[in-house]
Specification:
- The chain is of the alpha/beta class.
- The chain has 2 domains: about 210 residues, Response regulator (Rossmann fold, 3-Layer(aba) Sandwich), CATH 3.40.50; about 90 residues, Rossmann fold, CATH 3.40.50.2300.
- It has a 7-stranded mixed sheet. Strands 2-4-3-5-6-7 form a 6-stranded parallel sheet, sandwiched between helices.
- Strand 13 and strand 14 form a beta hairpin.
- Helix 2 packs across helix 11 and helix 5 packs across helix 6.
- It is elongated and about 65 Å long.
């Protein structure tokens, strides 16, 4: 696994992407420089050059001992009780969990309609802790964060539960178990549709030999075949002398790589070649070589003047763009949990103009995220 500079306590955090194995979706890394200005295609409001953190008060958190006395978790009787099940003490996932919790608490403190019951997601007894929280009177559970934790609690889901990772295909269907995650496959599928809508017919997919690149590439290929019946040309990077011929056969390029690799590739492409990418390319200080690339990312970064985004405070800690996505995930998880706490909710009614994207529930019980489109612009000096 690639070594990255430490952030905060120096822990590199990855998501659990298959049972009993770890693969990265978003990796916490160190990069605290301000975001360069970008032109957003989906709305006229420009993105400010610097995203300044503002302070936020913590929402009330109620500790959950084991076993759970009912009096320990009941706050105001006028507020809905929402359980938050996260592995904040985990060596592998603790830092990511803490960032998600910070976003969740920020949204709760702004909204004020819920008492949050915190439950530590511990690998050896996560199911017991989940059941204990439900027995205490929690109306909605948010979490677990890991796929292994989700698999452990799935047989015991009796209240609306919003897992914060993708659901494994083998899980028994349960209408009360839903998923909100930041998996990269959704971005690749959306970009395939966007390129098709732009009239691209022969895309070239450039991919590096790492887990994220392979997942982005496979998701793009699957969606493109679904939309057109054709298979795009795929080129491994670094490409040596093969790039010229591949580009000559293509009318656009989809970059399924990191920002560093993308900058090297972009410099080797003809200036008029349309180039597309995902949020992976959005860093605090993007390389000037990325100028002109069309990419998608969260409203949290691209639409800072949108009402839903302005309503919530920025994190008090300095976070990377990749890490801050987890903070935004916590905000939207809280907002969806409030919807799920009402007696009238149904899968069809669960929609949200979220800070992580426009969210709607798919048939697989996992939320689909539609992201705004932007163009990388060179820094104005």
């Amino acid at each position: 696994m690639q070594k990255l500079a430490p952030l905060l306590v120096g822990v590199m955090t990855t998501w659990l992407c298959v049972a009993h194995a770890q693969e990265p979706d978003y990796i916490i890394q160190s990069n605290a420089a301000p975001l360069n200005p970008m032109r957003v295609l989906s709305q006229p409001t420009p993105v400010p050059p610097v995203l300044k953190p503002v302070s936020t008060a913590s929402a009330p958190i109620v500790a959950l001992p084991d076993p759970v006395p009912t009096a320990a978790v009941y706050g105001s009787k006028k507020k809905v009780r929402i359980g938050l099940l996260l592995p904040t003490e985990s060596k592998a996932f603790g830092e990511a969990a803490q960032v998600v919790r910070a976003g969740f608490e920020a949204a709760a403190s702004v909204d004020g309609r819920a008492d949050v019951v915190y439950v530590d997601e511990q690998e050896n007894d996560v199911a017991a802790r989940y059941r204990s929280a439900v027995a205490s009177g929690v109306k909605v559970m948010v979490g677990p964060l890991t796929r292994k934790g989700i698999a452990a609690v799935a047989p015991y889901v009796t209240v609306p539960t919003l897992a914060l990772n993708a659901l494994e295909p083998g899980l028994a269907p349960n209408p009360k178990l839903l998923s909100l995650s930041l998996t990269v496959e959704g971005e690749a599928r959306q970009m395939a549709r966007l390129m098709r809508d732009d009239g691209r017919n022969n895309p070239l997919v450039v991919s590096a030999n790492d887990v994220l690149s392979r997942r982005l590439t496979q998701a793009f290929l699957d969606e493109w075949r679904k939309e057109t019946g054709a298979a795009p040309l795929v080129l491994d990077w670094p490409a040596a002398g093969a790039i010229t011929g591949a580009v000559a056969q293509s009318d656009a390029v989809f970059i399924a790589m990191t920002a560093t690799d993308a900058a090297a590739l972009k410099a080797a492409l003809p200036p008029d070649m349309p180039v597309y990418g995902t949020s992976q390319l959005n860093t605090r200080k993007p390389d000037s070589a990325l100028a002109g690339i069309r990419f998608i990312d969260m409203p949290w970064f691209l639409m800072t003047e949108q009402a839903e985004v302005k309503h919530y405070p920025r994190p008090t800690a300095t976070l990377t763009v990749q890490t801050e996505r987890l903070y935004a995930l916590g905000i939207d998880a809280y907002r969806l949990a409030l919807q799920m706490a009402t007696s009238k909710w149904s899968p069809a009614s669960l929609r949200l103009h979220g800070v992580t994207g426009d969210l709607k529930l798919g048939r697989d019980r996992q939320f689909e995220r539609i992201l705004p489109l932007a163009v990388m612009m060179p820094e104005v000096k």
